[in-house]
Amino acid sequence: MAIHELKINGNRQSVDVDDDTPLLWVLRDEMNLVGTKYGCGIGQCGACTVHIDGVATRSCLTTVSSIGDKAITTIEGLSADGKHPLQEAWKSCDVPQCGYCQSGQIMTAAAYLEKNPNPSSDEIRQAMHGNICRCGSYNSIQKAVETAAKS
Amino acid sequence: MPSTPKNTISRRSFFKTSALASGGILIGISFLNSCAPSTEVPVDIADITFNDFNAFIRISNDGKITIFSPNPEIGQGVKTTLPMLIAEELDVAWDNVFVEQGKLDVDNFQNQFAGGSNGVRMAWLPLREAGATARMMLMQAAANRWGVEVGECSTSEGIITNAKGEKLGYGEVVLEAAKLEAPTEISLKDPADFKIIGQEIGNVDVEKIAQGKPLFGLDFKREGMVYAVVMRPPAFGQTLVDFDDSETRTVSGVLDVIRFEDKIAVVGKNTWSAMKGKRKLKANWSEASPAESSEGHDQALFALLDGSQFETMRMDGDVKTAFAEADQVIERTYESPFLPHNCMEPMNFFADVTADKVDLVGPIQTPKGTAYEIAEALGRDMSTVNMDMTRMGGGFGRRLYGDFAMEAAQISNLAKKPVKVVYTREDDMTAGMYRPAVKYRIAASIKDGAITGYHLKEAAVNGNMYSLIPNFFPAGSIDNYQVDVASFDSNITTAAWRAPYTNFHAVAEQSFFDEVANALNQDPVQLRLDLINKAKGTLDPLRTYDPDRLIGVINLVTEKSDWGKKKEGVFQGFASYYCHNTHVAEVAEVVMRDGKPFVQKVTCAVDCGVVVNPLGAMNQVQGGIIDGIGHAMFGEFGFENGRPTTDNFHAYNLIRMNDTPQVDVHFVKNDIAPTGLGEPSLPPVGAAVANAIHAATGVRVSKIPFAKNMNPEVLA
Ligand code: FES
Ligand code: FES
């Protein structure tokens, strides 16, 4: 066990866990930030996506000791009021089915739109390809990302 | 305002109201009995106790409405859709309606269950009657206050108005309403007057989902809770001999290692320590029953298809003679492997078992049955068991089985602590409960250009077919018709999986008719229509589908998909099917992408009666289609030495964004009572895709996963 200082959603927080603990479990079990989801633990599904210094990152494969001073943003910190253009589009397009994969989808899309604010439909489909939605809400995800990009 | 047929409240559905100490009124509704025959004698409403109810409406004196949604939410949308039914007849603005998930309450709710596409179907009448009853009582209370006849009053959006134009809000009369007897006669709205039913109403949890608020079982926490990750026998048929936990106990955060049955629970102070601890466990297993393999399953199922050990489910005419006299016989075998459910949220459950109570919280499709099983296993009285349901990160049938909740209760009971059991993805994929492997062999006899005989044989692991299926299309359309089933008993656990029984039957049957149409040089759609029209002329008491409604969806989908109007490089495939009381027809469009068939679009027509919430309905149908395509194209799962060959998403392909077609959904408009939507779009789509692949490549793909079995030589 060791103390790790983390910058999460603009706050500095310290946590006492083993060095090899994935950020995912630090967020969920220690920080009570359960919006970041566990789906596979091996980087295949994207449910655990957070931003580290703005880059969409699989928190299940990111050990707590590897983060250092970098800024972590989770779904809870994506916007102060839940009104990020993607969150708004998610509501207007009624995207969720079970909802479990959705925070990871939003975080992947948010980082992508920062890099490419005017993507084509094909580019969106490629960018979102790494995030699994078992419920098959892909048509609505695509629509919501397109909607957010336009707003 | 509402003035359609008077409904006398009979035993089919009933209500009880009571004043709330906190102010306001509570109305209980029962809708389990809505499925019972309606011939029962009407009962005196005064005799009914709250034991008979399964949903509640609370109207507070500020006019706010809370509807307790009794059914578990697995992504099928009932938490949004069912309250819409109440709100419609109560005549309130949807914005004033709050929806809360009811907890398992065997005293007050009945039929808390998600499965079989039943939510809306069973609730359609009773929940509307409940809303209408409450509305009548509120109007009566207002009429009494004004000293006028109730007939002079009307309502709109929670406001009662009399002939003089005076107004009272529901909240203002709610206390008086609570003292009134519930009316014995109520009237339901004319569908033309619906204001909420048929509107696009967003998912009531979308705000929380989009902000990552705790909702799911895995998100639930309780003070003092510890985490358990369980080692189960790695192969089916094994039992635990002994184990060495010395290394596990050195992992920081590991609190305990507990054996129960043939399993070992590693209890940790957080999820990660429990997961790590499990990796360090060493266990010895012995074989209690023989280890099975996919090769063995294939041999066994083919032996059944080739043999004569069948149970005949339906037999019309004489198939043998028809085949003996045929000009041509068409035959094909269709194969599907075992498939895991792979809910996005892995199985998990919370249990706190203490000396005097059992507290259970988690994602479960069968809260009542599971709570009873746990009470029985622990030797507890049901009155000491509490079950709270969380939102579920998918169900697909897996969460009908409470094995993971039982584990949580067993471990908590032994650890004497509140415990959350967490499955890793590997646990989730390998612990059992699969869609059974199944093979169909279908043959048709052709004479003088017509189908004279049809013989379908099913061979499935642990059985599959359900007694209604042999009476689906094409029963009654072909004079000599037979359906036979055979089962291979396996030690691998099998389970319901979205659209159980029909999910592969539809693929086989609807692929087969495409092949028959080709052989007869007929349009595949016209072939179906001719067969259905033939059934229409007969009176078959066993027939489950409605020929006119099936024809209706076929006509709608051919129109909307531009069926048969060839576009260069675009190849269409058609399928239609009836299951879970809903009629569906689909056209898949395949193009060649990088030399391989790619499904770019699916057009779907659905007749599910009234569409209560078009947004939710669209999500369900799109989801079912994408799920169906994903598993038909990529579903690959098997066993070697009793062990699953795949355990996570690096090797198990779920459909992803770029493999997904655009799905275009059209609903038949009618006023028929609504039927299920969670499942019916899934079964036929595999056939629509297989038929489109054939149109594009000339290859008949009949084995899941299609992507692997499309025969690369032909495609090259
Ligand atoms: S949980 Fe991290 S990618 Fe699946
Ligand atoms: S909405 Fe259920 S997994 Fe995506």
The fourth-level CATH homologous superfamily of the largest domain in chain A is Beta-grasp domain
Count of discrete domains of chain B = 3
CATH class of the largest domain in chain B: Alpha Beta
CATH fold description of the largest domain in chain A: Ubiquitin-like (UB roll)
**Percentage of β-strand residues of chain B:** 25-35%
Q: Order of strands side by side in the largest beta sheet of chain B?
A: 13-14-11-21-18-19-20
Order of helices and strands of chain A: EEHEEEHHHH
Shape of chain B: globular
Query: What oligomeric assembly is this protein in?
Result: heterodimer
The total count of helices of chain B amounts to 17
For the record, the CATH architecture of the largest domain in chain A stands as Roll
Helical percentage of chain B: 25-40%
Beta strand count of chain B = 30
As a whole number of angstroms, the C-alpha radius of gyration of chain A is 15 Å
Low-confidence stretches of chain A: none
Major sheet details of chain B: 7 strands, mixed
Shape of chain A: globular
CATH superfamily of the largest domain in chain B: Aldehyde oxidase/xanthine dehydrogenase, molybdopterin binding domain
Q: Most extensive chain contact?
A: A-B, 61 and 65 residues
